[in-house]
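REVIEWER CHECKLIST
Item 1: Sequence provided? yes
Item 2: Single chain? yes
Item 3: Sequence as submitted:
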Amino acid sequence: MFLFLFTYSQDNSVIRKTINPNLKENANAVVRKNDITIELSSYNKMIIKKHRIVTVLNEKGSNSVNARINYDNTISIKRLEAKIYNASGSEIKKIKKRDFIDISVADGVSIYNDDRLKYLQYISNTYPYTVEYIEESIYTTTAHLSRWYPIEGYYTSVENSSILIKNNSGVTLSKKEYNIENYNITEVSSFNYTATNIKAIKREAYSPSFSNIMPSVRFSLKEFNMKGVKGSNTNWKNFGKWMNDKLINETTILPEKVKFKMKDLTKNANTDIEKARIIYDYIQNKTRYISVQIGIGGWKPMLASDVDRLGYGDCKALSNYTKSLLETVNVTSFYTVIDAGRDIKNIDKEFSSLQGNHVILSIPNEDDYIFLECTSQTTPFGYIANFTDDRDALIITPEGGEVIHTKIYNTNNNLQTTKAKVKVDLQGNIKAEVSIVSEGTQYSYHEGIQNESEKDKELYYKNYLDNINNIDLLGVKFNNDKKQIKFTEEIELKAIKYATKTGKMLLMAPNMFNKIQEIPPRYRNRELPFEVDRGFFDSDETEIVLEDGVIIEALKEPITIKNKYGEYHCSIKKTSENKLLYKRKLIINKGKYTKEEYNDFRNFYLNIVKHDKSKIVLKTI
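Item 4: Structure as written out by the authors:
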């Protein structure tokens, strides 16, 4: 009883203590205390205890409370409770385990899912308020030891945060630190870290992925249990060997009739890549994505024979099914674990552990690989831009795991080519035929429009060409060349009074169809480095035909800007008495830069915007 009262008294003092004003700066919430203790008693048992106190400063800060636990039949929740305190630190509400909302975490595309979530839902109209959260749970799956992030997100400051792992399992425990040097973080002892008084960090434009730049520590057991399957992890080769033998090997068997069908489909193919294209097209037409999260289903793929029979599966199942089909025609491919998403995140090749959130397929092709996204029914063969490109991934071979790098989409290949012919009349009205061809990373930014409704297409183009007022879309045609991975948009449009008429003068911006209008935001004191994770190349050419009675009064001089961030060129010249040719080239380079370089980068964009808006002078007679 004395110990309980002592602990409560200490926590109450934390809640009542005045928050340092520095920690309120840029903060929506303050983590007053976040103590995590993990007790490893064997390779297949651990107890996790959490004691968390968060003061919410405003409505946005409620997302930082994080009073929640995911669980399934391998997790036993022994203690779960919370208390709410008002601005003066007085307790106003107590929440017991039974009061937490309990839901399935089915994601809308899952039909098999035994993962559940208990979470605290508390809505307040007054701020600040404080939430104290206590959790204690027993886990029999030890494959995944949560990565410790003392800074939990943007706009959240940290008063105190700690992690302690007590390893009584007899199994080797390893760790790796990331970016902890420049923060107030102390390694108290091995596997025991504390963080104190870390100010909230603002989100800034072009910042690298949060997880790539924030301090964290990873942990991994060298022997572990995954939903009843014992695993071994001394290095990536060993870990991959375990995945191949225990999770994948017995899932690839297919009925004989399926094998015969694949051989018949590919009988006229001359190369392994041709065979792979045919089979990829087959699975895109036959299967659809459904998440499977039951039992070990979060890690082990469904049987290939079940996917063939049912016509659905998750990323693991569909990649494994495609791999199995390719095996029937003697095409080698590898099940590949990757960290997918718009942000580029690597599997850490120097620290083997359970990593990644997605599975794709890798096909050896001379000294490289072709990567297949098997969950999409529309993605072209070998196209992985903006989701799994340019990152380290783990391929699973019969001999073990190996970390490789996925395809990099180089700047010059991320090409958008815009060509237009525009007629300008005496009133400044325009009528135009525009062709936009998108390749590389830019392909995926455009090709989705073809599947939208007519109304949404019209809204899309009015937004895309929002620098043209009074636009009237006359027609749009598409050509999706999935073999060359080129998407072409053929657009006809007209607009009233695009050129501004003043007396007999017409002022007109010759860049009509690909204008940069947004300038990177200004920061008085930028805190974070910045990154352009994918470069691109825009090439624009517009022929301007002037109606009889419209003559050229003044043109602008050619502009060339070139620096480490990219290149910009634009020019306009007279090609005949009534024709002008406008050319523009914009290259933005991929790169990582210091925060001190941001103003130069922003000024580069300022100049682009200025020249993109510049006008020529025409005259009516």
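Item 5: Key structural point noted by reviewer: The longest strand covers residues 29-42.
Item 6: Recommendation: ____
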